[in-house]
Structure formats: structure tokens, C-alpha cells
Amino acid sequence: MFASVARKDTPGCTLDVRRGGKILAQRSYGMANLETPQPNGLDTVFEAGSVSKQLTGALAARLIERGTLSFDDSIRRWLPELPALYQPVMLGMLLHHTSGIRDWGVLADLTGWPRGSRAYSMEDAIALIAQQKAFNFPPGTEFLYSNSNYLLMARIIERAAGQPFAEFAAAELFTPLGMTQTRWRSDFRPVVPRRAQAYSPDANGAWQLDMPFEDVVGPGGLLTTVGDLQRWNAALDEPRRGWVALMTEPGRLTDGTRVPYGLGIELGPVAGRDAFSHAGSTAGYRAWLGRFPADHLWIALLCNSGSINTEELGPQLASLFLPAATPKQNATAQVATATGVPADVPGAYRNLATDTMVKIVEAESGLRIGSSRFLIISPDDFAAEDGRRARVSRDSGGHVSALVVTRSGNAPIWLEPTRTSNPDAAELAQLAGCYRSHDTDGEHCLVFADGALRWRSPRGTSQPLQPTIADTFSAPESGWTLRIRRDAKGAGAGFSASIGRARQIPFERQQATVR
Q1: Which residues form the Beta-lactamase-related domain (predicted)?
Q2: Distance between the two ends of the chain, CA-based, in angstroms?
Q3: Alpha-carbon span 301 to 496, nearest angstrom
Q4: 157, 63 contact by CB (below 8 A)
């Protein structure tokens, strides 16, 4: 499983597997520092990425248990500097990722200075969040992971506790639990003994440093070892701790739908077994932490290689120490193979939330929606193995008006039928110009040259745009989708930019041409 990093010329991983506190496996692979060189070991300090959210969630839970904070507090009670737009957002929405607040990290992309290109502070990130004029969705109506939630929560915890976030965490958690090698990266400059440097491969496959030189903590920024994470797992395995129960209680949408996310903990099954888990990724660091209560199994995995996918590797590792999963009956068992897929269902669709194009094609016994396979239940009803359902909505004339994908523990996704687009040079040329948004800083330009359109950032970097559906373009290098709004003459009047964690950011045209 770790063959790709079990070498002396690559970064790697360290893992610790225990059952009921007893060590089952401890392994280290690859190098902590390729320049020294120094191998990874059990005492190597890594950054835990979004596994850090568990510790932020725990600090919030302790303050909630004491009555200092409440799930129902408006975030503006503690962060009055945020504009009135944020008044409906409650602390529970931050902790359960139902706030609708755009992810500050992807917003930073639009400033021209993405994470890793400058040293962001907490104040920088909060200012960017405060600059937003809209949410991804009305607060409380959907689950959508956003690092902004736990960043704001860290600042709220600091104010509620009346002391710096790192000091409060040390006094409340790290010192009492014996997590002596754990700290927050509140300042990226101090020397950390035995810290692994993080690396990612460049375009040619050569390793290069990929470190998080920023002072943002809460959603990430936890420096720790696998041994300290196992001390943390042991603390969460103690049922008498009231704040632990708060952490593992699922959130809810405003309509009562239960969200499979606690306080920094994913509550879904892993390898077919009930689990509390979370993956992490910051710069070139990767992590995975899992706890299986019924099996008394704890797993901590920390890596300094950006080429490692711990979201896949963590569950694979867990499966080695768990009983084989029992196949469960699901909706796909109802497949009626004698029924064919209606001819008007396959085609191109627009995701109404993100403007991305979704291709739906007929596949064996059903449909392939994007990369997922849905088997046919009835002519207008399809089911995936993970429990999602896709139902065709038709208008009074019987034509397909939408494909609605329902998800357990979340709001449905609406897909609208549309057509692919291949604009000619004249149509592309009409879009050339510079655009600005009140939600981010800097001027963005669409540049038409050599028969193609490119998107130039405020920093001067550019990337190609590819047409997908009507007046919509994808930016394959970054993952953004741009939907153009034209004026009466057909010229570009503005566009909205969307990506997974930040939707529909509006831009308005500033000038007609660009060179």
C-alpha cells in the first residue's frame, strides 16, 4: 500500500494502528526531509490538514457545554465586524458546514494570489469573507464543506475564551491529554523540532517544497504526531466526557434533515463499518484519522507527500484490521432490466447551483451521470449504489424539465437539460474585456487571441477557457466555471464564477477591449 513512498528519495508517511489502546501496527515510510536527508519516524511532526477541525470542534464543544457559547448564537454576536448579511448564520451552522459561507481559500484564487503565493493571516482571511455580498445558498438549507466555517469558529473561540486560541487549546486539551508534541501553526516562522517538510511533485515529477506558509488556523494548522493523535482518539473514546457526545451528534438543516457531520467529524461508514473519521490536506501534507467504536479500532495516518490520497488510503488501511463488510440491500436491487432508458433523458445538463455541465449518457441497465453509475428503477427513476436517487421531472407536455438528484443528509441537486456549445471566433471576440467583482479585489480580463479565449488574473497569470454549454466556459487548470451574461448587442456584460465551495461570484464589465 505504501510502496510508492517506501524509499529514501521520496517524502512519505507514518501510521499508527491500535485496538483498544493496544498497538497493532506502527510504520514509517520515506523521508521527513529530502535535503538533510532525514527519514520519517514515529516522533516526526506533520501537519494534520482538516483533521485539525476535530480539535477546533472540541474547543467549541467545551465552551458550549459550559454555556459560554451556544449552537444558536449568531456569529455576529462574537464577530460584529462582519456585515449584517451574516446575522442569520448561527454557530451550529459553522460547525456543521451548513452556513453557506464561501470558502476563503478558493476566494483567494480570485484575488490573483492563491494560497501558497503569499502569507495569509487570520485577518486577511476574515476580511475576504466579510467582503462577500452573498452566500452559496441560504444559511441552513444545504451541507457544503467550507474552511471559512472553522476559521471563523477559531476566532470566536478565542474571543469567548478570552485568551489566544493556541493557549486555550494547550490548556484545555493538549496538556491534560498528554499531547506534548502538538501545537497550532499560528505563526509559520518558529522552528519546530522533528517537523517533516512537505513536498509535492512538479510538472515533471520532481519533488519540490510545498509548505503552508500562512498563519491561518482552525480549519487546519495543527502540528502533531501519530502518537498524539492516538491520545486524542483515546480521549474521544471516553463516553463519560459530555463534550465528546456533542462532537458526534449530527447537524441538521433548517428543514430537519440530519447532516452526517459532527464537530469536525464525518459520521458516515468506512469500509462498511460505523466510523468517526476525517481526512486532511494542506499544501503537501496529507492526513487521515479514523475511529471505529464497535471494533475498538483507532487509526492515525500522517504524510508529507502531496501525491498521497489519504481519503482513499485511510479506509484501505482500516479494512486490513476490520471484519469483512456484510453486503447491504439497497435501492439498486430493485433494478427492472426489462425497462429501457427513455431516449430523451441522456444529454447535456446544467447544474443550476454551479453552472457546470453534467454529461448524462446511457449505460448498462441505467445511466452514467458524470462519473457515477445510476441503475434504472423505472423509466424516470434511477438509483446509485451509495443511495442517491435521480428522478426525471417533466413539464405538462411530457418534456424533461429537470433531473433531480437526491442525497441522503443533504439538499437535492437540480440539473437542467441544455445543449453543448461551440462558439465561433466572432462570438468569443465579443467577450474580450476586463471585469471586476465587489466580492474580490482586482481586475480580471478575458483575452481573445489565436481564436481562443483566456482568463487573465489580477496577478497577470492566465489560463485557457473551454466552452461547455451556452455562454458557459470551464477553466480546466483551476476547476472554475464561468457563465457569461451578454448585453443586447451580444457583448459580454458580466460573468459569474463558480467552483465547488464558492458559487456564483458576480463580475461586471469595466471596458470593451483588452490588449
Answers
A1: 6-307
A2: 51
A3: 39
A4: yes
The residues near 329 (Cβ < 8 Å, ≥ 6 apart) are: none
pLDDT one-digit tens code per residue, 68-119: 999 999 999 999 999 999 999 999 999 999 999 999 999 999 999 999 999 9
Sign of CA dihedral 123, 125, 131, 137: negative
E strands within 50-190? 183-184
Look at the chain and count its residues: 515
Chain centroid to CA 482: 20
CA dihedral 36, 42, 48, 52 (to 10 degrees): -140
Task: Quote the CA–CA distance of 224 and 214 in Å, as a whole number.
Answer: 17
Peptide bond before 176: cis, by omega within 30 degrees of 0?
A: no
**Which tens digits make up the pLDDT trace of 190-228?**
999 999 999 999 999 999 999 999 999 999 999 999 999
Tell me the DSSP string of 467-513: E-BTTEEEETTTTEEEEEEE-TTS-EEEEEEEETTEEEEEEEEEES-
Quick check: 131 and 290 in contact, CB under 8 A? no
> Domain 425-511 falls in which CATH fold?
Lipocalin (2.40.128)
Name the H helices within 69-215.
75-78, 91-95, 104-110, 122-130, 147-161, 165-169
- Out of 3.30.460.10, 3.90.1200.10, 3.40.710.10, 3.20.20.70, the CATH code matching 3-51+163-319 is 3.40.710.10
Pick the CATH number of 331-418 from 3.40.50.620, 3.20.20.70, 2.40.30.10, 2.40.128.50: 2.40.128.50
